[in-house]
Design goal:
Blueprint lengths: L1 E2 H10 L7 E5 L12 E2 L9 E2 L3 E4 L8 E8 L13 E5 L11 E4 L3 E4 L2 E4 L9 E2 L10 E3 L7 H9 L4 E5 L3 E7 L3 E2 L11 E2 L2 H11 L3 E8 L3 H14 L2 E5 L10 H7 L3 E5 L1 E4 L5 E5 L2 E6 L3 H18 L8 E7 L10 E11 L2 E5 L18 E6 L11 E6 L2
Parallel strand pairs: 1-20, 6-7, 14-17, 14-18, 15-16, 18-22, 20-24, 23-25
Antiparallel strand pairs: 2-13, 3-12, 4-11, 5-7, 5-8, 6-10, 9-10, 19-21, 21-22, 23-27, 24-25, 24-26, 26-27
Helix pairs in contact: 3-6, 4-5
The structure holds ligand LQZAQKY5 and molybdate ion.
Length: 399
Amino acid sequence: MIHFDESIEILKQIKIDNYKTKKLYIMDALGYILAEDVVADHNSPEFPTAAMDGYAINYEDMPLGRLKIASINPAGSALTDAVLGGTCIKTFTGSLMPEGADTLIPIENVEVDGDEIIIKEEVPQGFSVREVGENYAKGQMLIPADTKIDFPQIGVMAGLNIVSVMVYEKPTVAILSTGSELLDLGEVQTNDAQIRSSNNYTVEAIVRKYDGIAMQLGCIKDDKASIQKAMADALSKSDIVVTTGGVSVGDFDFVKDVIGELGCEVLFKGVRVKPGQHIVVARKGDKFIVGLPGFAYSSTVTALLYVVPLIEKLQRGRSALRMVKAKLKEPFIKRARKAEFTACNVSLLQGEYYVDFKGKKVGTSAILTNMLGEAALLVTSEEEHSKEVGDEVNVLLFG
Ligand SMILES: Nc1nc2c(c(=O)[nH]1)N[C@H]1C(S)=C(S)[C@@H](COP(=O)(O)OP(=O)(O)OC[C@H]3O[C@@H](n4cnc5c(N)ncnc54)[C@H](O)[C@@H]3O)O[C@H]1N2
Ligand code: MOO
């Protein structure tokens, strides 16, 4: 078994030969990763523009105190009139500044007397005039490739009249739970040894939450030929195949053998991590197979640790899971000489994270309910030992 850090380093070092990209209408691109740079093809604004409703004047005319209103300039109109000596033009927020005007005096600062304004309160030169390129200049890089498209990116692209953009495709993740004891949702129990399968649904939820396209394949019996057929089929239809169960040392644990027989390159199998020590990650071209252990807590934690980064890698995304520092409110007993991911409660108090274990059960890796509530994962490396109240620890947030 390899060190946990080595397994993460192996994932980081993976090079994708050919990223899949596609062009999407900008609104459909929300949540995708941009596969091209977005560069401004014009200045914004292109011309000096009024930022308030008022009167466009030449600053040098301000001392006159009284100016004739020469014309009116609503937003969107192609005004040809200019501000000539001693005159002003009524101009509105968003209107282009007329020729000859460099300052906008707001409506609130003047009194109208017939066809003239009387200036009650002066403003500095250039007041309320948006300069050319105030927002962005032509040629400016606005959104670099590999950015996740969120609402500001959508708005900026719309401002650039970009109708569709190149994005990385979200990888398709096929999910298959193995185990002859498993009952899928709604399936009728026929003997006491059967249990309800949860792993395939937890993994599907993780895939969906962290920007993959989930392909739910349900449960399959511990039969090598069936597993082989199902995995080969899944591999042909998806970018990542995630299995749960059948990766340890039992007589019916076939997943590792099948991965080998499918001609995959095993990147690692077996990591000094708790839970999840039997994890296997393999590659075939730009496709991946991740064999997660069967226990519900193990498969969930290892999906976060190994499946989420692969989903991100295939679309050049950044890690959505955040590691923060926190203070222990209770002692932590280190149980294994491995990296440990222990379910805990996390709270934020005056800008600092705190960790306790109230209500968390100590037991096997079957206890998924430990991840309910304001849960997070306390992370300790294989080199670390038990910890005291007040010690600083690392916590992985997934909420
Ligand atoms: N002799 C050894 N036995 C075990 C070892 C070991 O090193 N030596 N490792 C233990 C650890 S750690 C884990 S984790 C499990 C992993 O084994 P598998 O990946 O082969 O998983 P299974 O045996 O198929 O299942 C384990 C457990 O989880 C339940 N399960 C399975 N699938 C699901 C599902 N889809 N939803 C909910 N629960 C599921 C299954 O019924 C078992 O109880 O091996 C230990 N044994
Ligand atoms: O690997 Mo198991 O997941 O430690 O319980």
